[in-house]
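Posting for a labmate who doesn't have an account.
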Amino acid sequence: MLSRLLPGLLALIATLLSAMPQPAGAQEAPWPNRPITILGGFPNGAGTEIYARRLSLPLSQALGVPVVVDNKTGAGGNIASDFVAKARPDGYLFLLGTAGTHAINATLYRNLPFNPLRDVTHIALLGDVPNVMLVNQAHTPNLRSCADVLAAARARPGGLNFGSTGNGASTHLAGAAFATAFGLNLVHIPYRGQPGAMQALLAGDVQLFFNQTGPAIAMIQQGQAQGLAVMQNGRVPALPDTPTVTIACGKEMDTSTWYGLFAPPGLPAAIQARMNAEVAKIIRTPEFTEWLVMNQGIVPPTDLTPAGFRRVHEADIARWATVVRASGAQVD
């Protein structure tokens, strides 16, 4: 008799136990419930860090948890990118990546430890970032226009150099694309990050620096450097006195890159959607848009969806592959 009742009793006990309240902490609280980190791959003062810090405060307020900005520098941003590519997709680690880390590096590096397109979850495109050709006329008073640069480079091949924030960085490829477009022999001198390259220009160690607009605007406004050409077809409102490369140099070209927010691959769709919605809402506010345009020279994205970001990402891998191969740049 007992043997016949035992299975039913066991099932009843299991049902009662499952209906009992769970101990505190047995079920994970809804996301987010602890600090979130936005990781960058470049040193302090880089445009990516400037953007991440500006984004972190309103994002923290929207999500109700601290949003911390941190950096893992080295290898053209690959160390941070690889770290995030292999991280747990739990919604507490994101990467502020660039066209450099996830499009240029796809061709530039022979052996990447991660796949720049597959090993990410796309959150949102954060904006297009133009480059501007900078000189320091305190050390090069003869370089007062793009025409002067072209004349000097053609008169003495290899006599002009340009600094960059590192091999394969957008600041390197912008200079290489300019040299290729105009048939110039410019010597490339890489530095480790934004501060080193900018200091080299200010000290007169390099004659040119094809810098991103964000870090360059303040230097131009303070008179420490002069912008000879914006390296895209449209003007930058924050630099009204700096002509486009088409006007200044007589040839159309565009070396703009982008910033984007990624998460590790496999991020739950609900977290991806929530993070995208909050970031998009912040970027669309008048205050943030004005900061992007007038303070950083960044063009706000028109499509803030993850799918739109992925389309831009895929197209740019192909676009920059052509530039990298034409420049001859390669990193093992």
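Reply:
Got it, the structure tokens are right above this. The domain at 131-249 is CATH 3.40.190.10 (D-Maltodextrin-Binding Protein; domain 2).
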